[in-house]
Amino acid sequence: MEIFRSFQISGSALMAEKVRVDTVAANLANMQTTRTAEGGPYRRKTVIFAEKLSRVRDVPPAYRGQGVNVAFVVEDPNPPRLEFDPEHSDANAEGFVAYPNIEMAKEMTDLVTASRSYEASSTAVNTAKSLYLKALEIGRG
Predict the structure, then answer these.
(1) pLDDT in tens, 72-82
(2) Can you tell me the distance from the alpha carbon of 96 to that of 105, in angstroms, rounded to the nearest whole number?
(3) How far apart are CA 105 and CA 103, in angstroms?
(4) pLDDT tens for residues 100-115?
(5) CA-CA distance, 128 to 119, in Å (whole number)?
(6) What is the distance between the alpha carbons of residues 133 and 135, in angstroms, rounded to a whole number?
(7) CA distances, 126 to each of 3, 43, 67 (Å)
């Protein structure tokens, strides 16, 4: 067993949550984006996490977990929200504008969840650091 594996696991969680916060920020920044380079409104994005496993085959199951990976950043398959605004430059023939299907409350919930997860991983790193320092003090005494 690696002595600093807890740092690697917590570090991977910190990186994954950073990607989630960045994705939520992009969603919020594009709530009103009705035209993208791909055509149509911005599509809400979601982060999918996966467990990072050890590549060593003879590792016991309890020690195979190596942290978390960002497996995918996927676009929301739900259709865009339509609003009637015939004066808008992106309005269709009926006068409806397609806006991204992004809800502020859902994005804020995701942001708070990511923030709390980031905080928990940061606390785990600080606790492990404190334990390693105490172990070094024992060895000196």
Answers:
(1) 999 999 999 99
(2) 24
(3) 6
(4) 999 999 999 999 999 9
(5) 14
(6) 5
(7) 15, 37, 17
